[in-house]
């Protein structure tokens, strides 16, 4: 273990959910970890005010956070399990329903505010690693097997392994000159919190149409909450999204009620709306000797299945395991095999998830009457195949 104050075993740039989870996973290894971020404060929400950014954590992601010791803190703050899922074609009659009882599970996952997950991780990390913020990276060079970093406060760091967990517009990925395959969906996701006339019943709902998917994700304010709050993610063409943002609250709720086919009755209230441009990105490489990318820095996926954070947490889990393995076997952390083994395990899985989401998008974005009939019959057929539904849920849960 390195003890020099200006030298670390691992430096992680980006203290979001994925970067913080990676740092937490490395705590038992006795490696010296430095975590850097440009922001210190985490916004706090309570009562009827929810973080507009939520994550749909799969059982595998929740289990990983459990092994890190952060899951009890997340549950103590607030998290909403979803016990069922309903997906339907808004331009036909095709529908698939998933139930945890039918699939012999306690739940299908959890809807959790991003700030809740991050707060729990940061609290777990307190006094266990060297967390430095607000700081940014000024320069980075690799010399004699070490990463040499100059930070915005003028301080320097040396490390055999540098990890970029700094998001979709990763500064480190750009500094490393790693090419990215990307395309603009020309859609924006409207995100906000709504209150509905009827209880969500702990069911996640998603309606597909050629305009874009609309998801109602159940939220739980506290133990006494009757389940009338949902987070929405509504993907629309940019021009249409701007129109929705310009509507008054009452008109927006009315349009949302119609678009959702009043699946939870009237949408009675909407919080402030935010718009997020939608891109798909995938780095050609997840790093090289002494440098690795994780989470959105390596890949961004369409939000229609809520898999983005889950994929990032799987990255963190595998990279941490490879770092610990190298340490146990006396392999230098800057050895190419560390990042190569991580990339082999994660790249194909991430590409498969991205291809699946791209296929769904094109399937439901096509207005061909022939394809409409085919996909509705297909949805109905899948709904009747319990073995296939179990397989689909295993894939969505991160089990395969």
Task: Provide tags for this entry.
alpha+beta, nine-stranded mixed beta sheet, six-stranded mixed beta sheet, FAD/NAD(P)-binding domain, globular, 11 helices, 21 strands, single chain, D-Amino Acid Oxidase, Chain A, domain 2, 400 residues
Description:
With 400 residues, the chain is of the alpha+beta class. It has two domains: 10-44 and 117-182 and 283-361, FAD/NAD(P)-binding domain (3-Layer(bba) Sandwich); 54-113 and 185-278, D-Amino Acid Oxidase, subunit A, domain 2 (D-Amino Acid Oxidase, Chain A, domain 2, 2-Layer Sandwich). 35% of the residues lie in helices and 28% in strands. The protein has eleven helices and 21 strands. The protein has helices spanning 17-26, 59-68, 71-77, 114-125, 171-175, 238-246, 249-259, 308-328, 336-365, 369-383, 386-396, and strands spanning 10-13, 33-36, 54-57, 80-82, 84-89, 95-99, 109-113, 130-132, 137-143, 146-151, 156-159, 161-164, 180-196, 203-208, 214-218, 229-237, 267-270, 274-283, 287-288, 291-293, 299-300. Strands 5, 6, 13, 14, 15, 16, 17, 18 and 21 form a nine-stranded mixed sheet that branches. A six-stranded mixed sheet has the order 8-2-1-12-20-19. The longest helix is centred in the last third of the chain and has 30 residues, at 336-365.
- The CATH class label of the largest domain is Alpha Beta
Second rung of CATH, namely the architecture of the largest domain: 3-Layer(bba) Sandwich
**CATH topology call of the largest domain:** FAD/NAD(P)-binding domain
Oligomer: single chain
Q: Radius of gyration in whole Å, from Cα?
A: 22 Å
Describe the largest sheet: 9 strands, mixed
Query: Which descriptor suits the 3D outline?
Result: globular
What portion of residues belong to β-strands? 25-35%
Number of helices: 11
When the domains are counted, the total is: 2
């Amino acid at each position: 273990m390195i003890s020099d104050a200006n030298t670390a075993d691992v430096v992680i740039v980006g203290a979001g959910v994925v970067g913080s989870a990676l740092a937490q996973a490395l705590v038992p290894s006795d490696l010296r970890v430095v975590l850097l971020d440009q922001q210190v404060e985490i916004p706090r929400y309570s009562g009827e005010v929810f973080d507009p950014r939520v994550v749909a954590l799969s059982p595998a992601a929740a289990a990983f956070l459990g092994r890190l010791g952060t899951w009890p803190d997340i549950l103590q703050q607030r998290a909403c399990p979803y016990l069922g899922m309903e997906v339907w074609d808004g331009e036909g009659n095709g529908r698939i329903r998933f139930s945890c009882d039918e699939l012999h599970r306690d739940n299908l996952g959890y809807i959790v505010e991003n700030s809740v997950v991050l707060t729990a991780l940061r609290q777990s990390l307190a006094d266990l690693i060297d967390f430095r913020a607000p700081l940014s990276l000024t320069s980075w060079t690799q010399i004699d097997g070490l990463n040499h970093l100059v930070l915005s406060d003028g301080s320097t760091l040396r490390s055999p392994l540098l990890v970029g967990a700094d998001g979709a517009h990763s500064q480190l990925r750009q500094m490393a000159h790693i090419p990215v395959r990307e395309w603009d969906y020309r859609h924006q996701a409207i995100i906000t919190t709504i209150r509905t006339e009827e209880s969500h019943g702990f069911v996640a709902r998603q309606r597909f149409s050629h305009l874009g998917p609309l998801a109602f994700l159940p939220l739980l304010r506290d133990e006494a909450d009757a389940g009338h709050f949902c987070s929405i993610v509504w993907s629309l063409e940019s021009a249409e999204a701007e129109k929705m943002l310009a509507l008054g609250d009452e008109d927006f709720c009315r349009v949302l009620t119609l678009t959702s086919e009043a699946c939870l009755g009237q949408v009675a209230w909407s919080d402030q709306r935010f718009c997020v441009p939608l891109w798909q990105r995938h780095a050609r490489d997840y790093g090289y000797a002494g440098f690795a990318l994780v989470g959105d820095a390596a890949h961004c996926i369409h939000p229609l299945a809520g898999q983005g954070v889950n994929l990032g947490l799987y990255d963190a889990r595998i990279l941490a395991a490879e770092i610990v393995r190298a340490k146990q076997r006396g392999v230098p952390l800057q050895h190419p095999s560390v990042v190569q083994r991580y990339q082999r395990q994660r790249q194909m899985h991430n590409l498969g998830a991205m291809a699946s989401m791209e296929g769904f998008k094109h399937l439901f974005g096509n207005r061909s009457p022939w394809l409409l009939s085919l996909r509705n019959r297909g949805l109905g057929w899948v709904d009747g195949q319990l073995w296939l539904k179990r397989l689909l849920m295993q894939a969505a849960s991160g089990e395969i």
